[in-house]
Structure formats: C-alpha cells, structure tokens
Amino acid sequence: MLFTGSANTGIALNRQFATRPEKILALEMGGNNPIVVWDTPDLYSAAVLVIQSAFTTAGQRCTAARRLIVDQNLYDPLMEEVNKLIGRLIIGEPHADPAPFMGPVIDNDAADLLTESFLALSTMGGRPLKHMERPIEGRPFITPGLIDMTQANDKPDVELFGPVLQIYRKATFEEAIAEANDTRYGLSASLVSQNPRLYDQFWANIRAGIVNWNRPTNGASSSAPFGGVGWSGNHRPSAYYAADYCAYPVVSSESEQARAAIGLGLRDA
After folding, report:
1. Which terminus of the chain is less hemmed in, N or C, by CB atoms within 10 Å?
2. pLDDT value of residue 241
3. Is-catalytic flag, 246?
4. Does 62 participate in catalysis according to the annotation?
C-alpha cells in the first residue's frame, strides 16, 4: 500500500499493518521542515527562498518550510527583506489579474484553525512579527504570518498546514542544526549559505530525506526519491522509487545443465 497524507493517518495505517508482514506499506507523510539561513551576503535572494519555501501554494505542501532558523547577526536585515516581499505578495483566486502568488487554504475551517494556532503560539511566548489576516470575509484566503519563537516557553512539534512561519535566532551553526533536528518529522530541509563547508556539515548532520542547498524546501523532482524519516515516512521514499513497492525481489541460481558432485563426507562405494 502506497500512502500520502497526514502523520496521524500514516501512524494508524502502520498499526493496522503491523500483523501483516507480507504487505508492503510505503508512507509519505508531512513535515515540520526547517530552512536555515547562514553566512550569505545576498539577503534578498535568501528572502525569496524563504518566501517560496514557506508560502508557495499558501504553505499547503508537505515540504513547505514551517521553521526559519537564522544567524542572529542576520536576523534584522533578513526579516526586513522578508517583510518587504510579503507586503508585495498578491493573494487571490487562480484566474485573478494580476496573477496571484498564492491562493486560499483548502476551506474556512482550515483558515480558522490556522489563525487560532497562530494565537496559540503567541500565548506560548512567541512574538508575532506579522499577524495573519482574512482579507476577504467568508472566504478561506489568509495572509502570511510570521512569529519569532526563539524565547517561547513551549515549541509544539506540529505541522501547521498553511502560511505560518516560525522563526528561531541562533548564535552558532551547530545550534542551528540542533534546532532544525528538534522534531519528530524528517522530510525536507534547506540551507541558504555561500559557504560550501557549512553545506557539507549540514548534509552530514541534518535529519531529513530531502536536503537542499540554496534551493527552496519544496519543489522536489519526481525523477528523484521523495520521502523522509520519523513522522514523515517509514524509509520507503516515493516518486522515483515508488515502482519498487509494486513488485518484490526474486533470487534465482541457474545452470543450463545439471552437473553435481559431492567431494567430501561420502563412504567408499
């Protein structure tokens, strides 16, 4: 069985199939994905990658960035660029003119849940940087929300499936990687940096099935494996590998003619 969906449903399926070892179960679930910005001079490009990662499709992708982890020395100038871009984003229906960057979330219930979740993050000690708004009354359109969770008392490890980005300031790159890995999920992670040495360190230590460098967290190719670990999947990535789960390996030892002899362990004839 090949499943794509929420972590809770995937966990339920995993339990259901626990007594069926003959069944192949490939799970592709959600993510609490980090994008890390570190040691980069081009903050405009970094901001574009953050926006694309967090808010493409109104944040409704399993690979969307849910957390921005940034060098505390870059925090202010980066957030200035991010805020400028958010202020320019067009939010509207698909055929609007001019064309929108992002449309609505799936329905009004989802929009209500996201705004309530944003308020909940605030009560946990998060510092709102940009509040979420509902620009069209009665419709599930919602503006991007930014909240600094660096000093939060509690950091819920959940997948908020929409345009909500949590931000964490860190002093060292090692702290940034530790924060990125502080999740039960492990789907996608991205590093924005001009330093190849940092990417080598990121690649070697990040816990994710999709690891990108100076690219968004989303937009994976179907010609490559796609999946993650932990609450993001069960080590059976989909996309390029999915066909493997529709078959099973068979080992065959063959010879065109039967010739056999026993060299040891026989009494004389």
Report:
1. C
2. 79
3. no
4. yes
